[in-house]
Amino acid sequence: MVLALVACGDDGTTETTAATTATTAAPTETTAATTATTSAPATTATTAAAGAFDDFDYYEFSLSMHDPATSNNGKFYQAWADALLEATDGHVKVVLYPSSALAAAADVGEMVETGAVDIGWVFTSFYPGQFPLTDVTTIPMVGFGDALVSTNTLWDLYDKYPELQEEWADYKMLNLYGNPGMLFCSADKPIEKPEDLQGLVMRTPAGPITALVTNLGASPVVMAPPDMYEALEKKNITAYVFEPAGITNFKLEEVTKYFLDMPLYDGAFGLVMNWDKWDSLPPEFQAIIEGMTGRTGSLAAAQDFSDAAAGAHKTISDAGGEWLTPTPEAVAAFQAAADDVAAAWPATIKVEGFDANAFMQDAVNIAKGYLE
Which of 42, 152, 159, 326 is the most exposed place for a label (fewest CB within 10 A)? Predict the structure, then answer.
């Protein structure tokens, strides 16, 4: 299979120069180094007998992600690609393009839809209004702060609500999962109570968190992770909302001093594939991929994320970061402010005839069930 070639100019524009077609030629080698991981992603796929696919074509697909290859997520998806290559006896090859090499974090969804990128790693908070029901896990302090809980909740909601499925209809959805709990982090002064946000210029993802920090007197700036280090160095921002693995993936512990150990919410990620590229695969290869993705693959990705976040706690401490534990009084004050944001969330959902309040309560109750 010949890849669609994507040219990325200095102005960030992209141009598709070739369509993807099947070929019986042997797969090409790549000179990119493969990062070793301790274990391959979970899978329900079975490895075919040697020679079972001798008469099948070879396929190569691009996978665009904004995290670096050295991040836990880069290593996880390299291991996933390696496992897929082995399960298909070398016939389906996925080449990772980390660090937004093919597409900016906010553009990868559209580029997968159009076919300029074959597979994309989508962080829904970079797409305001496109995944409003999926982003229920981003409502602060309603019960989301554990990646495995939010992942199971998202899959239960996905199976139950056609309206949520419709948000992903433009893609073949492979994985859907939550990240570890997002935290308040700051460079110059600690954030220990709501009043400490007053006057801060703070990086946040889009979504309900922007309402929370605005209500508390901060000025939110939506910014992709690759831009955060320089923004902190230049004091364009002095605080941010992020999760521990992401902090160390982008080395932000080098320019951050204080970390409030109070999970706010979980961001949502989707691994999505262009429909035409998916349909180009024979059913046998589609079945192998589906055995490596879905709820099983999503939970594996969430577990890897959680493990990385646990390790990041020590990395941050070793770099001189201070982990702060909020007092019960401070937690109660943050909770009161978050409750106002949660109460306003249903009115932001513009799905005709849809009871967003009932949906939110259902999501919260499902999450509670997984926590018990």
Answer: 159
Cα–Cα distances in angstroms (integers) from residue 76 to residues 42, 80, 83, 279, 301, in the given order? 11, 6, 11, 25, 7
Phi/psi of residue 104, nearest 5 degrees: -65, 155
Length of the chain: 372
pLDDT digits (tens, 9 = 90+) for 117-138: 999 999 999 999 999 999 999 9
Residue 120 lies in a domain: no
- Per residue in 152-166, pLDDT (tens digit) is 999 999 999 999 999
Beta partners for 61?
A: 94
Is 17 inside a domain boundary? no
Tally of domains in the chain = 1
Q: Please give the Cα distance from 367 to 226 (Å, whole number).
A: 31
Any domain includes 124: no
Domain extent for 328: 183-266+311-371
Which residues, including other chains, have CB under 8 Å from residue 8's CB and lie 6 or more apart? 14, 101, 102
CATH number of the domain at 254, please. 3.40.190.170
d(CA 52, CA 243): 43
